[in-house]
Structures
1.
Amino acid sequence: MADRGHRSLRVWHLAMDLAGTVYQATSSFPRDELYGLVSQMRRSAVSIPSNIAEGYGRGGKDYARFVTIAYGSLLELETQTELSRRLGFLSPDQEPKLLNATAEIGRMLNALRASLLNPAPRTPNPEPRTPEPQSLNPNP
């Protein structure tokens, strides 16, 4: 089976879905926010799956660093989402939908980062057992 890379990660798919949801939610923001909250929220949302993908591609210690950056972008998006609600730009059903998605993705990013920083120890191969010498005498 071929490695599908970052596309095989559920967290990447959820982050892509979140980015699409952010684009839809911000399409109804006031026009004067186009270069303000709309732009910031969209860039934060796009940054999450982008950093997951880039980190996966680089591998090694860089992977954990890029997952950390993705988590930072997620927290930015949470803050911008709450501010958008306070300013009345989000409908009552949009904020919980966005925040529920960010909470789930946040848990997954934290678990991914932990697994990259503290990989499970490998189980060593057992030492080969040498058979006990058998006596040719049936009655010892």
2.
Amino acid sequence: MSKQLLIRPQKTPLKGIISVPGDKSISHRAVMLASLAEGTSVIRRWLPAGDTLATLQIAQDLGVQINIDKRSDIAWDLTIEGRGLHGWQAPQPPLDCRNAGTGMRLLAGLLAGQSFPSVLDGTEQLRKRPMRRITDPLSEMGAKISSENGRAPLTISPSQLQGIAYRMNVASAQVKSAILLAGLYAAGETRVYQPGPARDHTERMLQAMGVPVRTEGSWITLPESPEGGWRLRPLDLTVPADPSSAAFPLVAAAIVPHSEITIAGVGLNETRTGILDMLQAMGAELTVHNEHVSGGEQLGDLTVSFSELHSANVSGNTVVRGIDELPVWAIATTQAAGVSQVSDAAELRVKEVDRISVLAGELQKLGVEIAESADGFSVAGPMRLFGGEVDSHDDHRLGMSLAVAGLVTHGLTLVHDAGCIADSFPGFVEMMQSLGANMAWVEQ
């Protein structure tokens, strides 16, 4: 039965102190790398969402023992018995990545260095996403990897890998990570050039595990492995709250009159804080406090209050640092005075769906004046939104963005196919309800 989400116009402020789920990007990487460590890793506040659960199951399919303490619906503690860099066992194909593009692309890099064949597959939606961006450089390294017209399923055969120097045309943490992870198994040095900022969670985690990845200007270098190969130290990590998940309550509080909320322990890695810059550029009242470091990652508490917003233009590095948050930032622009514009965001067109086209189509149903461009969109505000029926198109971030929009519409908003929200944010509706948000699940 498909889950629908009903949102009523918000007549009262959003108030409270909350936690949001752990970072999805870090949760994926923690399971993968801990499974290759020499010893036992402890991962706290791990995110049990649809995408990351796929990675967890794949690790188990590869013979990794993982003990799970289900602290809550949004935070698990994992104890992972690492098998060493060459300790994975041959799985029964295919390995099911479900809907996780990050999982598939990073695992392709690691599986390219194994002594057994494997197949990576997933949902029909994941099968539509481009994979040449990782299969091309992995093939340059000597990987034997084939695909269906550059898309999943990916079939990987054993091979001898060689380090390369690879120049990315567009900064991508997934491409960079796939190459670096394959580099753990490659002869010689592996280098990646990134033309702008991209998430650096892989580099930070490898460094924490004793691999001396270094960044020099725009080049990231994984040195040639020592004699006997790399031996990864186990992890002891508390996963920061995901800034991508925090973006939804942050925007909601910024646009619902008289609201003020605090989100605890959010990751403040500078490659991920584009949404904070975007909101502050619009005049949002946002403060960071209680900053500290855990597992090499910066964390802090975020407080945001309602304020009168004005338009802003977003492009370049800010887009890279906030690509996943642009759909919900678009909701904030509907309540901002003036025309806000996004450019340099063509990457949005190759996410779970074409997020530019689908976002524009769904917001227009609510009365939003939004215009597409090849690499972005523009929104004229402030505007009066009207309730209506919209659809997530099985995209978790679009589903939550439309739910936030429903808080400031006149009339009821019904988001169809909203169960996909659990792909990244289990407990989203319940968390918003704890702040006083007038939304609830309905079944149809």
